[in-house]
Specification:
homodimer; mainly alpha; two-stranded antiparallel ribbon; 8 helices; 2 strands; globular; DNA-binding
Amino acid sequence: MQAENYRSNCPINLAVEVIGDKWSLLIVRDLMFEDKLHFRELMDGEEKIASNILTDRLARLETEGVITKKNDPSHKQKYIYNLTAKGIDLLPVIIELGNWSLKYQPVDLKRFPHAKQLARADKDAIQKLKKDLLKKHQNS
Amino acid sequence: MQAENYRSNCPINLAVEVIGDKWSLLIVRDLMFEDKLHFRELMDGEEKIASNILTDRLARLETEGVITKKNDPSHKQKYIYNLTAKGIDLLPVIIELGNWSLKYQPVDLKRFPHAKQLARADKDAIQKLKKDLLKKHQNS
DNA sequence: TTTACTGGTTGCAAAACGCAATCAGACAGT
DNA sequence: ACTGTCTGATTGCGTTTTGCAACCAGTAAA
């Protein structure tokens, strides 16, 4: 087994090396809030990720322990992608990114209605959301 | 003036399109916590960004309104890079990324001592930090 | 048995990246 | 005036990543 070779062990860098690209967090978002489980569902997202990029990112996120991939019993060719606890713990990051965009970027609230409600979430609400996600994604 | 063409107006995407790469947040980090102001200082960071990439990212961040660039009166060839309010408001994002890394990634606490202290910051502490940054970066 | 759907793979052109060398202007020391 | 160093870049070039469309074999539904 080879140790991953990070550019540095600064916490910001260690996060950026895992989710610092244009797609990874969107995949996490769809798994978190859009009830998507399957490859095709992720492909049909708002931003039109290409299938080869999606394949690559799913593999990378799995390697990094952010998601899991398992067979879907209902279809021999289907896989179910779930968030791990590590992936679910990206929720606060995503919420803060949302808050920042709400303040400075041209968010379309009609199209993304739960943005504002998520921005209002306090610590307890976030804890509850995490709990729900852990249950939904089968992490005990 | 041309409207920026975002892939979608989802808040997460709108954030990721601005700071979703391997370098931008590291630049913001250095401007925030390392008291760096100049090109060379940013170049000499832990992760060894190349000068052409740094040039590109600084220009991009300036375009996006995250940083400003102004002449340094002390040297005709020097520029001072400052965070805008928009940039300073990335602080909560950075804190949450740090928290996540502290929990799941091999952070080197000896090398990055203020990571833990920053993780403990509550809302009031963050407000104070923002205030200090606003003053330091001249967005009075 | 045809038709559509599954998670991909492949090929190719374009863009971004990483690295080292280079640059002209500015400044400090002598 | 000369020398060396520092300034924020730019340039050239090879590698990697991305974006896009076409394609694939296995599975399932009609």
